[in-house]
Design brief:
With about 140 residues, the protein is of the alpha+beta class. It has a single domain, classed as 2-Layer Sandwich (Alpha-Beta Plaits). It is built from 7 helices and 4 strands; from the N terminus they run βααβααβααβα. A 4-stranded antiparallel sheet has the order 2-3-1-4. Bound molecules: adenosine-3',5'-cyclic-monophosphate. Adenosine-3',5'-cyclic-monophosphate (CMP) binds near residues 52, 57, 61, 110 and 115. Belongs to the NDK family.
Length: about 140
């Protein structure tokens, strides 16, 4: 089953949006198969955002993501990588449609509430960076 990495960033955790974001993915029909509230080390932050290393905002990005806990998740389901991107909305909340997570709750591009893998390759890379194999479960829906 397709899997993706979704993270509620420090602003989303601080603003009490973890439940709202989890609920949106649950209601859509996706399955939560891994989750942890964690402080991000600088090494992990720099590895996660390696593609932005040369951007002027890289330092700010790493400072922010390591500033207070994030809620890291693994979601599974058909087409979850692309659909999760639609559910999050555009990177800049000012341009994100209402009804998306960033459109409904975000204001600035630096504090845009949530991160999600942008392709199958990113999902594979990010999941292996953030989660050990034994931290990701799988289960049939029986109830
Ligand atoms: P994210 O999906 O986590 O991936 C890279 C992040 O860089 C992005 O969300 C934004 O939060 C952040 N970002 C992109 N552009 C800028 C910018 N101009 N200034 C600060 N942060 C940015």
């Amino acid at each position: 089953m397709e899997k993706t990495f979704i993270m509620v960033k420090p602003d989303g955790v601080q603003r009490g949006l973890v439940g709202e974001i989890v609920a949106r993915f649950e209601k859509k029909g996706y399955q939560l198969v891994g989750a942890k509230l964690m402080h991000v080390s600088r090494d992990l932050a720099e590895a996660h955002y390696a593609e932005h290393k040369e951007r002027p905002f890289f330092g700010e990005l790493v400072d922010f993501i390591t500033s207070s806990p994030v809620f890291a998740m693994v979601w599974a389901g058909e087409g979850v990588i692309g659909t999760a991107r639609h559910m999050m909305g555009k990177t800049n909340p000012k341009e994100a449609d209402l009804g998306t997570i960033r459109g409904d709750f975000g204001v600035s591009v630096g504090m845009n509430i949530v991160h999600g893998s942008d392709s199958a390759e990113s999902a594979e890379r990010e999941l292996s960076l953030w989660f050990k194999e034994e931290e990701v479960t799988s289960y049939a829906k029986t109830l």
